[in-house]
Amino acid sequence: MDGLDWVEAAARLFEPSVRSRWESPGALALDLDAGTVQTPALDLIDQALVDAVTTPNARLIISMPPQEGKSQRVSRWFPHWVLTRDPDTRIAIASYEHGMARRWGRTIRTDIEQYPTTGLSIASDQGAQHDWRLNGHQGGVYATGIGGALTGRPVDLLLIDDPFKDRAQAESATIRENVWNWWTDVASTRLAPGAPVILIMTRWHHDDLAGRLLADAPDTWRFLNIPAQATGDDDPLGRAEGEYLTSTRGRDEQDWERIKRQAGPRTWSALYQGNPTPETAGVFPNEWPRYTHPLWTVDHEGRHILPQAFDRVIQSWDLTFKNSATSDYVAGQVWALQNGRAYLLDQTHARLDFTATLDAILAMTAKWPQAQQVFVEDKANGPAVITSLRSRIPGITPVEPDGGKYARAVAVQPFTAAGAVHLPAPELLPNVSTLIEETRDFPDAAHDDTVDALTQALNQLFLTPLLTGGGDILTADDLLDLRMEDFGGY
């Protein structure tokens, strides 16, 4: 298709057809789908979409909390509505993977088939889920994953719905760069003159596609951010500060408060407020809850005994590959859980060779005989240590790291931010200062061994379902009796 045809096609998009009797995508959704819930936020999105489709070269970014109807409105009903205005509109929908984009293509096609009152029908010779056109017209939908080709496909309207699958993808510099290259090298080059682009996404990272577009061309892109909770006088919905979003899912204030607590400040700020913070911004608290009196008693053998009110006691070890002046440290910690709060009881932090590491774990086990499990990261010296100590320490357990260091730290942030993690005062554990310094500087600290031990422990205490009543996992009382005997002379 030559340039003149593209201009004519773009011009048609901005002149409403007599076919359309719906003033907005929301009006179409309400008319056709009895399950549609319309909220003030969706009213605002509807108006932004109408403005975009009637403004040549419009560039619109929409951010709103997850599961509040933005994708249904933008990726389902908006394309359908546009095609009622001009059935020759060639629409492309892209998402983080081809399957997700194809789902939207299939849904729009099904709606057109299910609701013939819109006057549209699918051409019989081109009706694939991801690639179809309207009968008797050039318009239709082509769906592709980010990174997919658009060669030979002029686009009159481009929708990008969540270019990142999850936080792990958004925090990958490689994937962020791939998404950006797809936009600059593929997507943007296929746009017909005047074609609008609408990006809707969950914000995970300050340098995600939305962040980079706004930084690259701030005067070009309109950013419609509808936060879950109003933060000031410039709220797009005119809410008072602190007021929560009227939810399509019926969430009330208590539901939002619960989500806010569970998400933690970083996830809440990014996903629900549309304001992702840089990676170096406070993963851990500046001030930790402290306890100043011992939670244990010490018997005549030097064993530290906890009252039975504690629900669980564990050790967590982060090991190293070798002992040298520049290698990482071995970090071992003892944690106890009581009524939903975790307490650091003890910590070892030193450069240790293999034999010294075994001795340190045995010593910690003898000192804290009620520790039900000894969690050891299953890499570096971990496998050899586990093999050497398995017969001597009941409950020694390998842990396969899930995600990178930063991801594991973020996973436990809701608990640290909520004040559920307590550290001892320095007079009870002098080397706790090392942990505080590493958490303060994380992820930019020279060493993060104590942080790794901490996140491993908190993941096990708070996030991992604990097995009960079988196998090698013994109760605290069983372990106390066993280790009083086995380590009595250690």
Output the radius of gyration: 29 Å
Calculate the terminal CA-CA distance, rounded to whole Å. 84 Å
User: Runs with pLDDT <50, length 5+?
Assistant: 465-490
Strand order across the largest sheet: 3-4-5-2-6-7-1-8
Tell me, briefly, the overall form: elongated
Q: Please give the number of β-strands.
A: 17
Percentage of residues in strands: 15-25%
Estimated helix fraction? 25-40%
Roughly what is the average pLDDT, rounded to an integer? 85
**Alpha-beta content class:** alpha/beta
Largest sheet: number of strands, sense, barrel closure: 8 strands, mixed
How large is the count of helical segments? 15
Organism: Dermabacter vaginalis
Keywords: Viral release from host cell
Domain Terminase large subunit gp17-like C-terminal: 316-460
Protein name: Phage terminase large subunit
Short description:
This protein has 490 residues and is α/β, with parallel strands linked by helices. Helices cover 38% and strands 17% of the residues. An eight-stranded mixed beta sheet has the order 3-4-5-2-6-7-1-8, with helices on one face.
Give your account of this protein's structure:
The structure is a single chain. Helix 2 (25-32) packs across helix 4. With 490 residues, the protein is of the alpha/beta class. It is built from 15 helices and 17 strands.
